[in-house]
């Protein structure tokens, strides 16, 4: 549910929200969702990638990864995803690049620096893809 916050002294309004923009089943027994989130003060856009595995006929979350935009072009791209959804190229990148990078973490071990870097790189690439 959105939260509207008024900024003192500026008379501006910022609405924080979280919206699921993609749910995908990349292989039998797994699914992931992609959520866009906007935070205020300062305005910050992020993409959350949640990986689930079917265990005893229920999907259980295994891994959650939050990618916070660091560059203006990433912020604009995530804002566009919040308005238009995930495009075809982004969808393919989330399935073929981000999903495998995140899936290696399903055993619950802490990610290595190389794994963190790979996930960050693939998330950034996926976010910045345009049709």
Descriptive tags:
globular, disordered N terminus, 131 residues, alpha+beta
Separation of the first and last Cα atoms: 30 Å
Biggest sheet: strands side by side, in what order? 1-2-3-4-5
Annotation field: number of helices: 3
Radius of gyration: 16 Å
How many E strands? 5
Low-confidence stretches: 1-7
- The overall average pLDDT, rounded, is 89
Tally of domains: 1
**In which range does the helix fraction lie?**
25-40%
Structural class: alpha+beta
Overall 3D geometry? globular
Give a short account of the largest sheet: 5 strands, antiparallel
Order of helices and strands: EEEEEHHH
Q: Approximately what portion of the residues adopt beta-strand conformation? A: 35-45%
Which helices and strands appear, and what pairs or packs with what?
Elements (H helix, E strand, L loop, with lengths): L2 E4 L6 E12 L5 E10 L4 E12 L2 E11 L3 H13 L3 H16 L9 H16 L3
């Amino acid at each position: 549910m959105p939260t509207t916050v008024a900024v003192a002294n500026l008379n501006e309004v910022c609405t924080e929200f979280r919206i699921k923009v993609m749910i995908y089943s990349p292989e039998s027994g797994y699914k992931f969702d992609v959520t866009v989130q906007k935070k205020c003060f300062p305005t910050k856009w992020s993409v959350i990638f949640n990986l689930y595995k079917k265990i005893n006929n229920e999907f259980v979350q295994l891994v959650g990864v939050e990618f916070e935009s660091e560059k203006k072009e990433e912020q604009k791209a995530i804002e566009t995803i919040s308005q238009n959804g995930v495009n075809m190229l982004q969808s393919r990148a989330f399935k073929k690049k981000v999903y495998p990078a995140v899936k290696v973490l399903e055993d619950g071990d802490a990610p290595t620096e190389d794994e963190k870097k790979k996930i960050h790189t693939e998330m950034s690439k996926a976010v910045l893809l345009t049709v």
